[in-house]
Amino acid sequence: MSKLNGDLVAISFLISYCVNNNIELDNVFADPNAICFLVTNSSAEKQIGLYLGKIQRFIDTASVLNRNNFWCNIQPSEEFSSSLRKTRKSFPETSQGLQTMIIPSRIYQNLLKDTIESLQIFNKHAEKISYVFSARTKVRDEALRLDQSMPISKLNKSQTSLVSFYWKTALKADKKLTNILAELTDLNIIKNASWLSLTISLGQIQMKSAFVIA
């Protein structure tokens, strides 16, 4: 089960990157900058190689099962695969054990139970989580002065920095927002009171659900 949890943590970085940059989740293995995001935001350098190895197994699985209804929609781009190969040379795996995507029935049952419990928790606090997302959307729109008639595109680095600055300002001004993030942290729904932590937690729930469905 610990290896499966590691898979979920690894993929949650990519999902978090997609959420932060308004990228469709079907393109989770498309943008090579997502690899940089994982490397930059991993808590320990020794874990980076392990996470990258898990991502490699995800895209290997997607490539092999390209006719599966789930995996066919998230095929990796050549740019993503190339970036992953290059980055893995700098951060090799330290684990000696062979890892696999095959899930035994007992572990699947535990995963299903854990997924249901997690969904129940998130559903219980859906309004508060929705408030955080609304606040983030408002901050993003105000920071970038988006033209609503234009399609939303991926943020570049300077835009991301600008949104982060305005988000920190919003956290200081909006007591309800900071209280919600603090409460979600106290309930162990997120690891710390930050937008990144919330998107990572949601990413883990999404991938757990995808595993169960697939």
Can you tell me about this structure?
- The chain has 214 residues and is mainly α.
- It has one domain.
- The chain has nine helices and no strands.
- The longest helix is centred in the N-terminal third of the chain and has 20 residues.
- About 2% of the residues have low confidence.
Give the mean pLDDT.
Answer: 81
What summary fits the major beta sheet? none
Radius of gyration: 18 Å
The total of helices stands at 9
Rough outline: globular
Distance between the termini: 18 Å
Structural class by secondary-structure content:
mainly alpha
Catalogue the unreliable spans. 98-102
Number-wise, the strands total 0
Proportion of helical residues? 55-70%
Q: SSE layout and pairings?
A:
Layout lengths: L1 H19 L12 H9 L3 H20 L13 H13 L14 H20 L1 H19 L12 H17 L1 H12 L8 H19 L1
Task: Give a quick rundown of the structure.
This protein is mainly α and 214 residues long. It has helices at 2-20, 33-41, 45-64, 78-90, 105-124, 126-144, 157-173, 175-186, 195-213.
Key structural traits:
single chain, 214 residues, mainly alpha, 9 helices, 0% strand
